[in-house]
């Protein structure tokens, strides 16, 4: 197949140039609509004998090829040479224009549906958060769960519920790995709480993990710089977390699953945001002293169990719906990729 003999990569883009990421994640493309300079992670590609819109779709289809060709030890990257090596099926300019317009239209339809699926996922997650906040605080739908003074997290809770402070019922665990880690590295997700760390990028353990904190099932684990984003949860696993995190034993006055839902509720996330300190927005730390003074409700234990059961069941239902939405979105994007390949290679003709 012919290649981009006339294609060049430049650091100044012009309208109609295809912008392509040359560093990980390699191969993402977009079409420039004005003249401006671009940074190291991007290149602008143009070819005088290729219709700009068609070039964009060919490079979109070549993402897998470029990722396979990318090189580098610290991070994967491609060069202008790699871009010039991308094969494509030759079409006359008028056919290229028709192909580009057809894919523009079909892509718009697919992305519109994907956008609606994303909105549905956000709505489902928001409804679950709303239900969680109402339930863990014993509130009714008529009560305002978000605009109440965040410095009063117990506002509106039932009169028969008890009240305590974090430091009275949550004792910090000082257990460390030492020479024999009891389990794998764990992470604290704002979406799921404590889970196995399966990341290939981002937070990973150092070679020496002897000082990492051990987490046991039933303990509350917390990233003190991410509490205002839901960076805490009760663990069902044995493992270890960053030495900068904390683990707490929970008193027997609490059902651990209730604690999990309580501190991950919108009311408490707002409260943590109000008491956190720090210069950077994504590094707002809640100190141990301030956390210990945090007001905490104590419903009767049987009510805690009922609340936890209801929220666990609701979370299971929502997770199932989210999984179906995610599967449908994946199928749509797979179909989109197949359509791009079929059209730019000429397997599927367009009128």
Strand order of the largest sheet: 1-6-3-4
CATH-wise, what's the superfamily of the largest domain?
A: DNA methylase specificity domains
Largest sheet: 4 strands, antiparallel
CATH architecture of the largest domain: Alpha-Beta Complex
Helix content: 25-40%
Q: Under the CATH scheme, which class of the largest domain?
A: Alpha Beta
Calculate Rg over CA atoms. Answer: 26 Å
CATH domain topology of the largest domain: Adenine-n6-DNA-methyltransferase TaqI, Chain A, domain 2
Q: Can you walk through the features of this model?
A:
This protein has 351 residues and is an alpha+beta fold. The chain folds into 3 domains: 90 residues, DNA methylase specificity domains (Adenine-n6-DNA-methyltransferase TaqI, Chain A, domain 2, Alpha-Beta Complex), CATH 3.90.220.20; 93 residues; 151 residues, Adenine-n6-DNA-methyltransferase TaqI, Chain A, domain 2 (Alpha-Beta Complex), CATH 3.90.220. Helices cover 39% and strands 16% of the residues. The chain is built from 9 helices and 16 strands. The protein has a 4-stranded antiparallel beta sheet. A 4-stranded antiparallel beta sheet has the order 8-15-12-13. The chain has a two-stranded antiparallel sheet with strand order 2-5. Strand 3 and strand 4 form a beta hairpin. Helix 1 packs across helix 9. The longest helix is centred in the N-terminal third of the chain and has 44 residues. It is elongated and about 75 Å long. The chain starts with 7 loop residues before the first strand and ends in a 7-residue tail after the last helix.
């Amino acid at each position: 197949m012919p290649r981009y003999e006339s294609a060049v990569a430049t650091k100044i883009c012009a309208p109609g140039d295809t912008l392509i990421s040359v560093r990980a994640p390699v191969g993402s493309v977009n079409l420039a609509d004005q003249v401006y300079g671009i940074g190291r992670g991007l290149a602008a590609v143009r070819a005088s004998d290729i219709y700009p819109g068609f070039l964009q779709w060919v490079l979109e289809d070549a993402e897998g090829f470029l990722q396979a060709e990318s090189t580098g030890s610290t991070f994967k990257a491609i060069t202008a040479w790699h871009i010039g090596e991308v094969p494509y099926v030759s079409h006359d300019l008028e056919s290229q224009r028709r192909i580009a317009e057809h894919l523009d239209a079909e892509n718009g339809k697919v992305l519109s549906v994907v956008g609606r699926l994303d909105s549905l996922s956000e709505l489902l997650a928001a409804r679950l958060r709303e239900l969680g906040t109402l339930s863990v605080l014993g509130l009714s739908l008529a009560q305002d769960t978000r605009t109440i003074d965040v410095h009063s997290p117990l506002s509106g809770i039932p009169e028969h519920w008890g009240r305590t402070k974090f430091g009275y019922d949550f004792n910090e665990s000082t257990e460390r790995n030492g020479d024999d880690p009891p389990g794998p590295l764990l992470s604290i997700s704002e979406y799921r709480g404590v889970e196995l760390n399966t990341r290939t990028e981002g937070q990973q353990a150092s070679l020496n993990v002897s000082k990492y904190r051990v987490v046991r099932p039933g303990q509350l684990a917390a990233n003190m710089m991410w509490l205002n984003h839901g960076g805490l949860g009760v663990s069902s696993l044995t493992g270890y977390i960053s030495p900068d995190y904390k683990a707490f034993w929970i008193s027997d006055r609490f059902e651990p699953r209730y604690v999990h839902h309580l501190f991950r509720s919108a009311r408490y996330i707002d409260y943590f945001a109000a008491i956190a300190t720090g210069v950077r927005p994504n590094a707002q730390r809640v100190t141990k002293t301030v956390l210990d003074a945090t007001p905490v409700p104590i419903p009767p234990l049987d009510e805690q169990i009922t609340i936890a059961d209801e929220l666990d069941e609701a979370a299971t239902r929502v997770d199932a719906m989210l999984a179906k939405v995610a599967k449908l979105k994946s199928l749509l994007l797979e179909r989109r990729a197949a359509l791009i390949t079929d059209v730019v290679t000429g397997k599927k003709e367009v009128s």
